[in-house]
Structure formats: C-alpha cells, structure tokens
Amino acid sequence: MTYIIYNILRFLFKAIALLPLGVLYVFADFLYFLLYHVVRYRRAVVEDNLRQCFPDKDEAWIKETEKKFYRHFADCFVETVKLLHISDEEIERRVEFVNVEIIDNLTAQGKSIVVYFSHCGNWEWAPSVTLHAHTEGVEYCQVYRPLRNKAFDELMLHLRSRFGSVSFPKSTVFRDLFRLKAKGIVTVTGFMSDQKPSHGDPTYVTMFLNRPTAFITGTETLAARLGMATVYWDMEKISRGHYRIVTRLISDGSQKPEHNELTRKYSQMLETTILRDPSIWLWTHKRWKNKVTLNPE
C-alpha cells in the first residue's frame, strides 16, 4: 500500500512540477489563503511564538510578520514540489552560494564538515550546493527525522536526492559517518539543529529570541568525536524564488572546542539570521513546548 500511495503522490506532484514557477506561485497564493484564513493551520502556535519572542513588538507587527510567514510557507511548498522538475541551470540562478570556497578548501585538505543549518528560507533547495562545490570525491549528506507516513517519507527522500546527496536518519548518522570516515571518504553533512530536542537528547540551554531555549548538542558531540570542521549556512530570501546561502566558518576542526562552544556559536548565528527577517523561519514548530531553565555559568 505504501508503494502504491508513493507512486500516486510522485505522479501527482511531478505533474504539478511541470508547471513554471510563476504559475506555481499563483497556486501558492491560494494555498496561503487556505492555510491562513480557512484552515488556520497552527495559527495559535505561530502567534504565541511571535509574541513571546518579540515582546517589544506591537500587534500590527505581529500580524504582518505572521502573514508574511504563511506566504513564505506556501512558497516553500510549491518550490519543494518543483524539485521534481527543475533544471540545474534554473536552480543555480535561484540559489546563490557565497563563500563556498571555505567548504572547498577544507575538503581539499581531507577534512569532513558538519554544516549547521536551520529551517530558514527554503532549506530543501540547499542540497544544490553540489552544483557549486569543486572538490572531487566528496559525499554530500543530510540528516533527517523519518516521517510517520512512509509514502511521504519516501517522496521526501527522493526529492532530497535530486542533487546527488544522501540522507541519513538521525538515529544512525554517527554510525553512517563513521563508516564513511573509515573508508577514507570526505563528507559534508547538513544538520537541521534548530528543532525541538527529542526526549533523551543531550541539550544546552541558552537565551535565544528572548526565551530560555534548549539546543541539541549531539551535532557538536559528533563533530568533536569524528574530528570534523564546522560551518554555518546563513540563508536569506532575496526575493520570491531567490535565496542566498553564506557559508560562515565556526571551527576548522584543528582544535577540540570547549564544551558547548559550537552549539552556543550556532545559536547566536541562527538568532542573527532570524532577526534579519523573522518571516522566513519555521514558526509552526512547537519549539518551546517544554519549559527549560538556563544552564549555570
């Protein structure tokens, strides 16, 4: 049954993806209206998150940012579907990578890299970095949390492999990367480290967007144990359907970082990204569902 549903979804989405993005954005406008005004998809969560994170902003700003977010959210949906039928040339025009030479220089030295990333902009277009990087023989990877719906999970894995990268489930990523390291394969792996930690995940709590916030430290632990360099991808939306990703070096991996140092730097960089344009972060996440207290200094 999963196989049948997967193929139906793939056929349907591929038919939609044949349409030009300009036409798909008309559909996105309708989807925005449906999500925001009719279904009111997680409106209460988004409103509460914005109010708690921006207590100094008035109601007009909150509502305007909320609407901008839902418009962007709808755009991301059609842009992700478009991955089923988009040329390398078009995606190169639409996603600009700045400082990608940082990645090239590190991988040319034989250093594997952890990429701290987030749900800002359209993260599903980020794997197109393989069209810009130049070091041969590097395996590009991303970590994901498997979806409960197996058909959708298979579809998303197919979409994320569009530019040649491979996906590793969170539960096995250390073993997968260790295996590649043992084979002498250099890797560049994206970690979406802005999600709410799962039960049992080790965390570091810091002030983030005016709230005590728990960040997963597993990414940092993995980087330290495997001797990997770390970078941050700072993604911004330039205009509709156009993004810029700036690679920012966190650590070249030559020295062992202090405890929670990488996580702290990531949280600060991510906050800067969000404050620049709050509407492009995924506010539907129940990021602060569980109350936490600050770590003692």
Which short descriptors sum up this protein?
two-stranded antiparallel sheet, 10 helices, 7-stranded mixed β-sheet, 44% helix, 297 residues, alpha/beta, globular
- Kindly state the number of beta strands: 9
Query: What would you call the structural class?
Result: alpha/beta
The N- and C-terminal alpha carbons lie at a distance of 53 Å
Q: Spell the H/E element sequence.
A: HHHHHEHEEHEHEEEHEEH
Mean pLDDT: 93
Helix content: 40-55%
Tell me the overall shape. globular
Strand order of the largest sheet: 1-9-8-2-5-3-4
Low-confidence stretches: none
Biggest sheet layout: 7 strands, mixed
What is the helix tally? 10
What is the gyration radius calculated from CA atoms? Answer: 19 Å
Roughly what fraction of the amino acids lie in strands? 15-25%
Short description:
44% of the residues lie in helices and 20% in strands. It is globular. The chain contains ten helices and nine strands.
Explained architecture:
The chain has a domain at 88-280. Helices cover 44% and strands 20% of the residues. It has helices at residues 2-17, 21-39, 43-53, 59-82, 88-94, 101-108, 150-160, 173-182, 218-226, 261-276, and strands spanning 95-98, 113-117, 139-144, 166-169, 187-192, 203-208, 211-216, 229-239, 242-251. The strands form two sheets. It has a seven-stranded mixed beta sheet. Helix 1 packs across helix 7 and helix 3 (43-53) packs across helix 4.
